[in-house]
Design a protein that fits this description.
It holds the Pfam family DUF4064. InterPro entries: DUF4064. The chain crosses the membrane at residues 7-31, 67-87, 99-127. Helix 1 (5-33) packs across helix 2 (35-44), helix 1 packs antiparallel against helix 4 (66-87) and helix 4 (66-87) runs antiparallel to helix 5. It is elongated, with a radius of gyration of 19 Å. It has a domain at 5-29 and 65-131: Substrate Binding Domain Of Dnak, Chain:A, Domain 2. Helix content is 74%, strand content 0%. By secondary structure, the protein is mainly α.
């Protein structure tokens, strides 16, 4: 029986990457709900360097839907967890691979690349799930 530890570890790292992307989505939601508080935060924190104008940054963040990003990221995490569950015991590696790959591609497209860090790990885990075959015993 083939072990799927590599795919599970990549899935966990991918989920952590999606956690980072969810923080970005929450920032977008925060800016959309309270623009003045965001301006105050940028002004009060000297460690945050702003390249370009703050108005342009706020306009860019307001042009995307943080709620949609967050929903897609949560859906991708759920798909990843389901994929890791069906990988346990090497039950359905093809289903797990499809779940990993589809969630990686869809989340990257919808978020415009904001979820790319998690998606890369899901993509690798999905390819590994689909490609790896059980070793055949060598007959002598």
């Amino acid at each position: 029986m083939i072990k799927r530890t590599g795919e599970v570890i990549l899935g966990i790292i991918g989920i952590l990457g999606y956690g980072l992307a969810s923080l970005i989505a929450l920032l977008v939601i925060f800016v959309q709900t309270d623009e003045q508080a965001f301006r105050d935060l940028l002004a009060s924190e000297p460690s945050i360097e702003v390249t370009g104008s703050i108005d342009q940054m706020i306009a860019d963040l307001n042009s995307v839907s943080g709620g949609l990003w967050l929903a897609i990221i949560i859906l991708a995490v759920i798909c990843g967890i389901i994929a890791m569950i069906v990988l346990k015991g090497n039950k359905k590696p093809k289903l797990a691979g499809i779940l990993f790959l589809s969630s990686a591609v869809i989340s990257t497209i919808v978020t415009g690349g904001a979820a790319l860090f998690g998606a890369v790990f899901f993509l690798i885990a999905g390819i590994m799930s689909l490609v790896r075959k059980p070793q055949q015993p060598i007959e002598q």
